[in-house]
Design a protein that fits this description.
heterodimer; A: 377 residues; Rossmann fold; 36% strand; globular; B: mainly alpha
Chain lengths: 377, 258
Amino acid sequence: MTLAIDIRHRLGSFLLDAHFKASSGLIALFGRSGSGKSSIVNVIAGLIRPDEGRVVIDGVPLVDTARGVFVPPHRRRIGYVFQEGRLFPHLTVRQNLLYGHWFTPPAQRSDGFEGVLDLLGIEGLLERRPGRLSGGEKQRVAIGRALLANPRLLLMDEPLAALDEARKAEILPYIERLREQSRVPIVYVSHSMAEVVRLASSIVLLADGKVAAAGAVSEVMHRLDLFPLTGQGEAGAVVEAVVERHDEHFGLTELRSRGGVWRLPRLNADVGTRLRLRVRARDVMLARSAPADVSALNVLPGVVADMRAGDGPVVDIRLDCNGDALVARLTRYSVERLGLALGAPVHALVKSVALDRRSMSGPFQNATGADAEADEA
Amino acid sequence: MCCGTLLGRFVAGVRSEQLRVRLSAMDWMALSPEEWTAVKLSLRVAVVATLFSLPFGIAIAMALARGRIWGQSLLNGLVLMPLILPPVVTGYLLLIVFGRKGPVGAFLADHFGIVFSFRWTGAALACGVMSFPLLVRAIRLSIEAVDARLEQAASTLGANRAWVFLTVTLPLIAPGIIAGMILCFAKAMGEFGATITFVSNIPGETQTLPSAIYTFTQVPGGDAGALRLTLVSVVISMLALLASELMARSASRRLDIE
């Protein structure tokens, strides 16, 4: 699947001017609220008719204002999971699930009813009405309903935003399974960095209705210039690593990335599993020489690759650790004291317990997924 | 009066003074054939008026609630007009337009053989026009209460506009439609001014319940008849209200509204 978007649309004083291409996997549309994420998925679904531009899937135009093409939503075969579920209150869960199936031409119908029930764990809910479901159950049924219409693309507009942390944790594994097991590409809208790092193969970063960056998650995440857009507190790098062994005695798991070995509190993942580690800039310390007698378990050698002064007394520093990018946030005082400059060799220190487990993803088969590209606008 | 005489004979055989009083009260309550005719005619007129108004009512309520059509406020004003105009004026306008010599009336009579003037069909038309605003208003309010985002969800699942309406909108507004129909029916049962102006007061043809009550009040000794029909009116109205209440409750239970 390839998805090409090139649209301009005015909503009051807000101008959406988005231009990107993406292909299979899970594509995250990331940005602050009001950056135009939801408007873009509504344009893809056909719920908004853009003032100008084109939306093309696999070479077939869904919208082309220059040629007067506008395929109505019900003919697009694009599944949509809304933030609030939007289940039909007058139908049972089973009828909700089969609603789209019923409108799909027989030749294009999926016969995966049982499979979808199994994938989402909703067998037990079939005869209930949406009013009697919990928030997490509603969202799982909504995902199933969209899948059973056998879409060629699945849109998910902040499907977890209305849920509390426990419900989010309940649904995330289902979305991971969906990404791995179904062949349907997903466009996933989110303003949560943890969700994006955990789920996305590629990312499109939006700011004020425009595409600020697009590409593989690990490439976009460590760009220092984008930190103001991704959120300062959450700034950090994404490292792809493989589970190497478990240390049952100390309750640790060892992972290997290009930059070196990572030790984390015991993870529930098999040896050989590919994972993403999100290392926040504020959790990384730097040392000029290899430190001895230090408690931090993760010490990776690298060189300073980029420096950027942020607001006030902080400086963001990107390191190149044998191909892995890490970002550290230090004070200007520390930078001067250590005499850090581009090319300076350093050691990065990360406490094991500081690593963000919430964004730790499950098995990632196509972890690189570097297939979103930002066209120069 | 045959029922009355039968009852009288039966009553004569009964000793209990109390019972006799009660039964003679029932005797007083028995309707004459003319009164029955008026009641049955009114029911028929109200049912026909309600059923024929319904599709137009739903269409216009949809247009007013959802459409962005030119002249929407004009349409709204036109629909609400009978509520504000004196009923005599509405009846007279109907007479001018739908009368035997009126532009629409003459056309319908010549081409389709449908005649309104001085027929029960005319009474149904007058009742339908007069109760239309109530029907449209009830349905319109329920359409506006439907979450349009559910309809969007249905369209992303492959349903075109007609199917969205039939499978999502219509079931969700069913309670409003029922409420509107019952209001419409009750209003049609009681319509007087426009009906009597348009189709007069012909016993057996256009003399509905209110016209019959009015006639009774105009003749000496008509009090008993007027009172009997008044009671019938009250009972039918109460039943209609009860029915609407019950249906609204079962509908909301079915929808499982939290």
